[in-house]
Amino acid sequence: MSAIKSYDHPTNADQFNKDQARTHWHDSSLWFIREKRDRMSKSLPEWETLRTCASQIKAHTVSKLADYLEEFEKNATARGATVHWAKDAEEHNRIVLEILQKHQTKRIVKSKSMLTEECHLNPWLEKHGIEVVDTDLGERIVQLRNEPPSHIVMPAIHLKKEDVSNTFHEHLQTEQGNYDPNYLTESARQHLRQKFCQADAGITGVNFAIAETGGFVVCTNEGNADLGVSLPKVHIACMGIEKLIPKVDHLSIFLRLLARSATGQPITTYSSHFHGPIEGGELHIVLVDNGRSKLMNSDDYRNSLKCIRCGACMNTCPVYRRSGGHSYAATVPGPIGSILNPLRDAKHHKTLPFACTLCGSCSDVCPVKINLHEQLLTLRTEVKNQKQLPISKTLPMQIASFVFQRPKLFAWLGGVGKFFLRTMPRFLIYNAMNPWGRNREMPEAPPESFRKQYAQRVKKKSDK
Amino acid sequence: MRVALFVPCYIDQLYPRVAMATLDLLEQLGVDVDFPEAQTCCGQPMLNSGCDTDALPLAERFVEIFSGFDAVVCPSGSCVSMVKNHYHHLLHDNARYETLRTQVYELCEFLVDVLKVDALPVKFPYKVGLHSSCHGLRELRLASDSELNIPEFNKPKQLLALLEGVEFAELKRKDECCGFGGTFAVSEEAVSCTMGRDRIADHLQAGTQVLTAGDMSCLMHLAGLIKRDKQPIRVMHIAEILAGYEVPQ
What we know:
A: alpha/beta, Rossmann fold, six-stranded parallel β-sheet, B: globular
């Protein structure tokens, strides 16, 4: 993974916005998907009912998560899978490595899994001499570029076809300057096919694990998860413990919501069900906590465990669209990432809850009704409580609060402020210290406040 | 009915015309309005900055000042939402607040739901671009947003449609955020201005002559960009339009 330039969202976003043409291109690519999602969601009269059901099923599952996990383990084991438990990323990586080493694995193929990104599995396996190939096309592109994904569903959404062509030319020896998407996709397909054939093991993520059956479902549009685990004898499925749903009957609700919310498709091209290992093979399921049980115990943030990682909140977020996924410096960016990351590491991710105008679009777009923008607001106080807010942010608020508790002082200072705004020379108002004025004019100061005008009005009325 | 006028701090100081228009409008509609002078700020900037302890005394003051009225009306959806939806983070088990929160109205909401206004004697022969301010839209539900699959409605638009000669500009993105976001406008200046300019571009392509909204804060941000970029759009708060005020030249 390429080095993260800065954890400071405003700095990264400012950088991204320097190229306005690219910023607009990024914004409109994602808005295109948001509009597709709107059309799809509005084609189902029962959309809001589906959201309510999904939200309630998830809330119920989270409230009894330990029971459902045990039920899942029992049923998955009965089907011949081996279930492993990992309390954190380190343990997850160790478990995966042990399985691979036991089988003397040299090469693996991996379909998209944000969990393995979260655990930084790739660099860990590579360090131990194992070749890891991401098989989702977008993931493969960013892997070749040594970049992290910039979106959880469309990992290379920040790249134009020209960027992809240059990357493929460098790594896959495609023709320079050939930007034809068909040509580029075919080249990637040929390249990946070799990797699929050579792999000793396949790793997948999990979209939904079903307690009742001990099976799980992986959704892809490229069929790469199926290909990756059909040839090798070892399949390792890595899942966060929140991926569980109680019954197979619940699945249809989530499958209908997931693809529509993610990309505006009625359903993902492949929704593959796995129930036990292939003949003569092994299936390992790694259940990972990595901070999730901490969220389960929090009234403020428990809801975020409902997330099905559709990425709709990113596509709709006006800030994400105009700052790019990398500006969040986190595995999961956008609104949901701005909740999950600071809860794990408030020091590094302290700017994320503030990378938001609290417009609320994410909460309304969310297929499982996570109150994202409300949680982001609550998190800001959490960041302050953890003493991660600089004094440049807290002191002005202390002063303002002091003034606002004294209406006469407020009225007097308001008058002084307006006087200066009216009389000060322009260069003193529009200086480097005034980020409002860099691109915007200040409001014109009226001669008198409303309270003053009101007092005069009342006086005039009583004089009559 | 005793109605209190809640004038957000920045409207009091920078946009007195908006507050005066609100007062005029309510009085024209026969409402008896009081302006409690002890009011200052609802505390939203503090809470939104994570400084809950600085917001708390302001929330307590607010409840103290505005309790006892039959209704509290405010020309700002964002400040109303702060009181209605976010004070409960600060004021736990406060019975007076629980009563008050049901009596606080955004101006358009009050006109439509309480006064049930169905006629306004105002001529406004302009193409109006209505900016749906996010907190009014998604926290107060003054209109249906494009994310939800629910029947369409729009209270501010319903009021504007009562005026003679009014035309509406059709936006490509009808309810996207303008990028103001309180302190966000300063702390994330780059994204904030890109968002604002995108909103203005949408209004320009739609032929907006007068840009309006229920929140002066969004309009302050957009007007700042319009003025800097010398765009041919006038900006008015919806209260000014509904009260029959002149379009500023």
